[in-house]
């Protein structure tokens, strides 16, 4: 890892003047010593380690960036890596709407400027029964949402992915009702575990992982972690998400990882960590129960699956 090969003094020096997300991304195309060396665009500095890191070994980069779900580029796991080069991530902007005092269209630079980046090593568990451990680079979603001054009407946040079949050829087929939409309850969105990611493995986010900006909610099934976000809307009512629209019986709004509530067509009790042979037990809330169980106290999680 770069922190091991970079002399401490140099590293500390660099962090002093390259602190925020926008600075890290702005320098991303320059050759620099801080990359993890997977061939992607390197971040300009090594992000500070954030809280809630798992000590499980990260899934190899080739799987993290080679085995993906991103239906905008096809429904099989290898198409996103093969086809996502057609996504143009610059320039990028995010429109903020709904119950807040500062709606508007913000450039990616506006979005990132005030936020120092951190590395968060999180488990990601797909509803299909596989999982990975991913060293994300990002910042807490709560810090961004606060800047838009949500009003008391804001009970939920809805996120939308880019819709552009020219860049996202998978959108020419109606496998989902495009664009992809996801949502969180406000307290879930403001939880310190919830982040927006702009990188992984010390590099700028590969397109297939949801560049330039994607949500990561580690205690929920992977489909909640929406990629390539262009719109954030504060709402009073629970958003209607793409997967709920597609199959309400199979995919609920909460989608908390829960080994005791099966998908109608398969068990959720176990999972296969990509790169491993034997299955392992799936943990309640994907192992983050201590941090998030209180959000759901008193709720029937069979009903609110
Ligand atoms: N826009 C969009 N976001 C998406 C998806 C998608 O198809 N489109 N797939 C989801 C699913 S099912 C999973 S498991 C994760 C996969 O993230 P990864 O490819 O970075 O591991 O992205 C989620 N976010
Ligand atoms: Mo998934």
Report the principal-axis shape: globular
* Ligands: ligand MTE, molybdenum atom
| Low-pLDDT residue intervals, each spanning 5 or more residues | 1-18
What's the total number of strands?
13
Largest sheet: 8 strands, mixed
- Total helices: the number is 10
Class inferred from helices and paired strands: alpha+beta
CA-atom Rg in angstroms: 19 Å
Order of helices and strands: HHHEHHEEHEEHEEHEEEEHEEH
Report the CATH C-level class.
Alpha Beta
In the CATH hierarchy, the architecture is Alpha-Beta Complex
Please provide a brief summary of the model:
18% of the residues lie in helices and 22% in strands. By secondary structure, it is an alpha+beta fold.
What does this structure look like?
This protein has 10 helices and 13 strands. The chain is globular and about 45 Å long. The protein has one domain: Sulfite Oxidase, Chain A, domain 2. Helix content is 18%, strand content 22%. The chain is an alpha+beta fold. The chain binds ligand MTE and molybdenum atom. Ligand MTE binds at residues 68-72, 124, 126, 161, 180, 209-210, 222-223, 225-228.
Describe the structure using short key phrases.
305 residues; alpha+beta; Sulfite Oxidase, Chain A, domain 2; 8-stranded mixed sheet; 5-stranded mixed sheet; 10 helices; disordered N terminus; binds the ligand Nc1nc2c(c(=O)[nH]1)N[C@H]1C(S)=C(S)[C@@H](COP(=O)(O)O)O[C@H]1N2; binds molybdenum atom
